[in-house]
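quick one, two chains, predict together pls
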Amino acid sequence: MLNTVYWFKRWFLSTNHKDIGTMYFMFSIWSGLMGTGLSIIIRMELAMPGKMLEDGQLYNLVVTAHGLVMIFFLVMPMMIGGFGNWLIPLMLKIPDMAFARMNNLSFWLLMGSMILLLGSTYVDGGAGTGWTIYPPLSSIGYHSGRAVDFLIFSLHAGGVSSILASINFLITTALMRTGVMLILRSSMLSWCLGVTSFLLVVAMPVLAGGLTMLLFDRHFNTTFFDPVGLGDPILFIHLFWFFGHPEVYILILPAFGIISHVVKAGSSKLQLFGKIPMMHAVTSIGFLGFIVWGHHMFTVGMNVDSRAYFSTVTFIIAIPTGVKVFSWIATMAGGYVKNWPMMYWAGGFLFLFTLGGLTGIVLASASLDVVLHDTYYVVAHFHYVLSMGAVFAMFAGFHYWYPLFLGVGMNPLWSKSQFMSMFLGVNTTFFPQHFLGMSGMPRRVQDYPDTMHGFNMLSSWGSILSLMSLFFFLFIVWESLLSKRCLIFPMVRHTESEWHGRGFPRSFHNEAQNPYGMSFEDKTSDKTKVHWGLI
Amino acid sequence: MFFHSEMSDMVPLLMGLSFLTLLHGVVRWWMDMVFESTFKGQYTSFVILNIRWGFKLFVLSEVFFFFSFFWAWFYAGIGEISVKLMGKWPPVGVKAIYPWRIPFLNLLLLVTSGAFSQSSKWAVKCHSKELDVKMGRYYQLAALGLLLVSIILGTLFLYVQSQEYYWCSYSISDGVFGCSFYMLTGFHGMHVMAGLIFLVVCWFRILLFHFSYRHTCVGLLNAVYYWHFVDIIWIFLYFLVYLWPHKLLTGTWLWTF
């Protein structure tokens, strides 16, 4: 009886950043499998010309659910909730997050959000609107059932969860550093998550406002997006992408943080190359992300000067991103690059994310985008930066910190071969999509002209290979838990503070005092007297 | 559509149940916070700093929530839609509310209320620093009085606003003007309600000596901060939603692109 009570309190009423992080990992891995299943249905439909699914609405629903699940229930929870919760208190050497109980609330709200999303797929034909839920397709006239309402509430709940978690992260990283942990000494992951959290706090409410307007249009006779009442669907597009663009940076900035750590540790270096310029680059990417939303809207009929502006600012974002990629390469230069699985994933990230960024530059040009908007070129671009950017970074971080979280190790040889097959799989899936987009295949279609069969078939075979790689990964994780090869020597430098205590952190909260030092040597306000040492 | 389906009889029950569950969760959450702070004394200055800044970040997220509705307002008023409206804002046929009666009264009510809540903050701070019991009591009574005035003015605001809603010539269904107007002012009213509840809870806590000697008054500080936020949103609303359509500021219809 007491055991049950203890179990309930530990897993439902947790205030422990490690347990909550573990729950986020399990939740996000489960969701990732669900999202992968949805993507396989899409690729099965598109493998051959003609229709496989009788119902077009079902296909649209699968496409919508795939996007929403992967973004809101795989990438964000794993990066921010999983890695963030586990590592921030360990890296900053603090006992726990600032609002430990609210941390738990964020997780359980996300569970509610997932239930609402699953609910939306079950009722009234589901929401076949695309993850962007544009009206009038998502309005009451064309989706008259309850599914879109479930979807709206799911995103509202998820939004609240994200905003609360972000407030938690911002306060923790900004205010809970004690003693010698100056702000510029925070780890790259803390910094990236801090900027990510700021983006979430500012951008998420705008989505909430747009969704509320959509809800009211559907049920309360308002006409925000209905021309009958002098509304405009383009208003929703503006509001959605004002949120949507920071959202995609929210997806990738934590990945940048993870890769910084993996590359630094995997190159046996004491310091990241140019850490402070990298921190500034992250801040500028975050800031610039707010003023480029129009590049998702080049074909709605915006005036040419606005399109010119959005194009230009989007190009500018490439500069700080380039600073980061070059810094990572420079970190690897002259170091002993370890033959660990995490470095394979990190190397894959560097190459493939850069490729994805380059196709992004192509799309940033307003004139080129008129041809490529809503084609598979866009799908290829964002899958390169997400499926191969964010997801590779998640794999890299997972392989790097798995022994820290669980105390056991995954078989490195199998992990490297799993990387190879996954690499082949995702590239086979998404590279042909560039050609499909260039030749005019639109997005979100259930069928296509017979001439596009070849590349579609190739892409579908690639998705099967990715699926098999994913199964292999699950096997590797399962085997590691079964075989219990326990961690003995972490084999990372002393600069990686999360590994202190020989890679075995305390079970619940961490030490109350910062073991590096609670105060500066010199208590005067003259910062130059502080021994900067290794920042 | 949901309200016309076969489950429509259960809707009020389900909504009531879920609202009660939410209410219970919310009340117990903040009760826990009161117990931890006032009764167990677990709120060090460090924790208080975190809570104050965390609340400010929350208010920042609320600011951006209103930002999206202001966006809709301006998109219709001077943005793309204004072309279809022929540059007329409010649209032809909609009579804008005369801004110098009820809306101005509401402005005065809220600003005064804000001033009173700010001074109650001062009184509570003195109350919590005061070692002498009698002086502490005087400060407590002062705080109670000032905060009560603030709450009464806020409640008056809600009443006056409800009257304006009742007598207004246009509704939320009256095109994009009506829906933007009511969305903005309606959500503002909801935030006023929430802020008032927060202030009322703080009033009772002052009464029960929760903020007396050496106890933290972070609850009141956050409540007053929220109240100022609500006040500032109303100021923006007054100028941009009431005064502007009545063309008093510019004397003419604002230019369109």
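Chain A has one domain: 1-488.
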